[in-house]
Amino acid sequence: MRVTSAVLTEIGSPRPYAASRPLQLEELDLEGPGPGEVLVRVAAAGVCHSDLSVVDGVRPRPVPMVLGHEAAGVVEATGADVHHVREGDHVVFAFVPSCGDCVPCLSGRPALCERGAVTNTAGTLLSGRRPFTRPGGSAVYQHLGVSAFSERTVASAASVVRVPAELPLEQAALFGCALLTGVGAVLNTAQVEPGSSALVVGLGGVGLAAVMGARLAGCRRVVAVDQDPDKLERAKQVGATDVLAAAPDAVDQVREVTRGGVDYAFEAAGHPDALALAYAATGRGGTTVGIGLPRRDQRYSLPALSLVAEERRLVGSYMGSAVPRRDIPRYIGLFMDGRLPVDRLAGGTFALSQVNEAMEALAGGAQGRQVLVMSAD
Question: Is position 328 within any domain?
């Protein structure tokens, strides 16, 4: 079938992206689903820093590539051996497909799937296929097994999770990355205890989701740090008890309001300086969690003695250490019960034809999650 998709053809285009237009709408041919795959009509797709990091070259990927990995839509067809979803189901995508056979998958850690990591880096589906082609037959690469900046896409069935039809798909899309990553880092990776204190550094979509997760976990104090006053205000709306500007004395301020440092700190900015702040503001015996994805060449050093003498933990969290088919329905249920204010996470709404404007809004630090709504064209 022929579909309209947003294709990245060159990495490193200059800002503003609304002018340089690194993503171009193209009419592509899309093959139907093979065994273990599904065809999905995409309804909405969030614009995430993992998309931006491909555009600006922070995380190089092969091009041409259809970007987009945080999305929701409706199943239109399934290939052989697909049993957990069927035509007409509403689904959310998970950006790491789980093979089910490698050691991480068998250990209950599908976010670390070995085959999924290899195929995501290669720009293919879990099967090794690339279902998008340009007219004439030249292949187009898949982004994180999803490629949601398109009217329709084909993904591994392991990349989709069925969700309630009554949940608006524009809201459902945010559960595939921002909520899965931010809330999951709190509940799964750190396993935050009720009554504890938490810090979140960096208040993009994932950071705000971590704030929500900390309140959900029962934290008595949730401190949010960012350099943007508007993002600090939004953090208050989703559960932060204290907000602080990212100033040189931010660590001292965190330690003052929490009487010695937080029990759990979450870095969601993807920068070593933010991780250094989070670690320095963590109290004795506390846990610091890195969520944001830094550049490949960036390094971080820490005072080694504190790791041992203060019994500190420094851990990474990828995709919120999630089990998507378990966690996405759980988080949606919590939202529908009024315990996760996901509706306050959404930022601007754009049509697919405005994908470069949405990317520029993200790069410029716009509040909340920018969302492409396919029907808005």
Answer: no
373, 43 contact by CB (below 8 A): yes
Please report which confidence band the pLDDT of residue 104 belongs to, taking 50, 70 and 90 as the band edges. Answer: very high
Q: Domain for residue 325, yes or no?
A: no
* Residue where a domain terminates, one of 283, 302, 318: 318
> Is 29 strand, coil or helix?
strand
- Please report which residue ranges of 200-249 form alpha helices under DSSP H: 205-216, 229-237
In a domain, 17, yes or no: yes
Tokens at residue 135, please? 């007219």
53 in a structural domain = yes
Report yes or no on whether pTM surpasses 0.90. Answer: yes
124 contacts: CB under 8 Å, gap ≥ 6: 130, 141, 142
**Residue the block writes with tokens 């851990």:** 315
Contact 207, 182 (CB under 8 A): yes
Of 168, 36, 25, 177, the closest CA to residue 94 belongs to 177
Residue count of the chain: 377
pLDDT for 219-247, tens place per residue?
A: 999 999 999 999 999 999 999 999 999 99
